[in-house]
Amino acid sequence: MRIGESELVLAKMSTLHQVLVDGVEQYQAGMRWNIIVYDRILGSVTASLTFAE
Known about the structure:
The protein has strands at 2-3, 6-13, 16-21, 24-25, 33-39, 44-51. It has 53 residues and is mainly β. Strand 2 and strand 3 form a beta hairpin. 0% of the residues are buried.
C-alpha cells in the first residue's frame, strides 16, 4: 500500500507479524499492542508505542 510517497506493508503468517514503513520494521514482537503513528505531511513515522495489556 502506498501512503503518499511511502510504502506500507502489513503481514501476518501464523504467529509472525510484520509492519514495514519504507522497508523499516516498526512492529515490536512480544508486545500485545503496537501503535504506529504515521504523519502524512512529514512522510514519516512520528511515534511508536507498545503496550503489554
